Amino acid sequence: MSRPAPxxxxxxxxxAALAFAAVVVVAxxxxxxxxxxxxxxxxxxxxxxxxxxxxxxxxxxxxxxxxAVNMTxxxxxxxxxxxxAIVVYARRIxxxxxxxxxxxxxxxxxxxxxxxxFREPGFGRGHVVDFISTPWMMPAIYNIADSFICVSMVVFVxxxxxxxxxxxxxxxxxxxxxxxxxxxxxxxEDTTTPSTRAxxxxxxxxxxxxxDPRAPRDGHDVLGHDAT
Length: 228
Description:
The structure is a single chain. 52% of the residues lie in helices and 8% in strands. It is of the alpha+beta class. A hairpin with a 7-residue loop joins strand 3 (128-133) and strand 4 (141-142). The two termini are 63 Å apart.
């Protein structure tokens, strides 16, 4: 009976990196939002770098970049699901890259989820504070949490394309897999040593039946008479 494969140990460093990245993103996002709410006039453009970067404090009832403004409850549920999924899969992470990327994604999701849960007009329907405007790049208004979510998704795709697994190993391409299979086949052939081949030959001879001494040989019977 085969034994089940032992579970891999939890990487404390990876989980710590994920948690640290998430806490930094949430603290930065919520801290800056508090400053915006306390100091910026609502709905008025404040130039920072001309038309390249502006501050525009608005309340967004929808998703990131002011999309789907009438689906606040849906995005509250989606954000909660993302947070739970990352927490569940955190035990499998061994790669520091994956830990940081998922930490940024977790922090961004939590930052906006906190707004939806605890800001006006009510629990689960709260409006997200947006304040960053870059008209040259996109017409939507966004915040720090949105920015980290976008950056984490870009790096997420790069890690997948590069074949970096959650445990830090690299996935083999089709060409590399064929080369690995060929090397394994050659290694199997090399394990068949001359002594092994001799043993196989000896076993083959031992398996052959011994000739019956009473059987006629070369046209003579067992008494030596000519069988003809």
